[in-house]
């Protein structure tokens, strides 16, 4: 169970128009360390956040309550959805963008995705890359991400 103290990022707000999450967007942090990424995701001046940050060690760090709108997706769309932040849960993976994702991190992601998908009734095809909803702007989670493994273990 998550507690209010588990959510250190104030970079969030209410979901618009009563939307509920029906998408999960995967990101990489593109930063040298998980600690630096967490500091940025919790910095009010950065105006960026995610619901969860997963460290290379597999530690899952809750940042924003799922009921709130985290600021992770930015400009882009998925199908008819223009406000992806209001309709999604954002998961950041601590990774500089040019490295493989460690086993512990992938296992933690699989476990978190199974839980989120079950609780919010999100089908596997609604787990997308940041690059899927902003293809001209983003590349994450990038070429090192094991999509095949994810589809086999979380479907």
Rg to the nearest angstrom?
Answer: 14 Å
Portion of residues in beta strands equals 15-25%
Which fold does the CATH topology refer to? Lysozyme-like
Coarse shape: globular
CATH superfamily: Peptidoglycan recognition protein-like
- Low-pLDDT segments: none
Task: Tell me the number of structural domains.
Answer: 1
Task: Give the proportion of residues in helices.
Answer: 25-40%
Number of helices: 5
Strand order of the largest sheet: 4-3-6-2-7
CATH architecture: 3-Layer(aba) Sandwich
Q: How would you summarize the topology of this molecule?
A:
Elements: E1 12-14, E2 23-28, H1 34-41, E3 52-54, E4 60-62, E5 68-70, H2 84-87, E6 88-93, H3 103-120, E7 127-129, H4 130-133, H5 147-154
Parallel strand pairs: 2-6, 2-7, 3-6
Antiparallel strand pairs: 1-5, 3-4
Describe the 3D structure.
- With 155 residues, this protein is α/β, with parallel strands linked by helices.
- The model has no long low-confidence stretch (mean pLDDT 92).
- It has 5 helices and 7 strands.
- The chain has helices at residues 34-41, 84-87, 103-120, 130-133, 147-154; strands at residues 12-14, 23-28, 52-54, 60-62, 68-70, 88-93, 127-129.
- The protein has one domain: Peptidoglycan recognition protein-like (Lysozyme-like).
- The protein has a 5-stranded mixed β-sheet, sandwiched between helices. The protein has a two-stranded antiparallel ribbon with strand order 1-5.
- It starts with 11 loop residues before the first strand and ends with a helix.
């Amino acid at each position: 169970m998550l507690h209010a103290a588990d959510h250190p990022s104030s970079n969030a707000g209410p979901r618009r128009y009563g939307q509920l999450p029906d998408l999960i967007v995967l990101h990489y942090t593109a930063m040298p360390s998980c600690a630096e990424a967490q500091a940025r995701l919790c910095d009010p001046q950065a105006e960026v956040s995610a619901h969860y940050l997963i460290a290379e060690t597999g530690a899952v760090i809750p940042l924003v309550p799922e009921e709130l709108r985290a600021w992770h997706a930015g400009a882009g769309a998925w199908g008819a959805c223009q406000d992806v932040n209001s309709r999604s849960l954002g998961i950041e993976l601590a990774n500089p963008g040019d490295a493989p994702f460690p086993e512990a991190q992938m296992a933690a992601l699989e476990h978190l995705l199974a839980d989120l998908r079950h609780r919010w009734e999100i089908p596997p095809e609604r787990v997308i890359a940041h690059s899927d909803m902003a293809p001209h702007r983003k590349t994450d989670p990038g070429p090192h991400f094991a999509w095949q493994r994810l589809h086999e273990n979380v479907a």
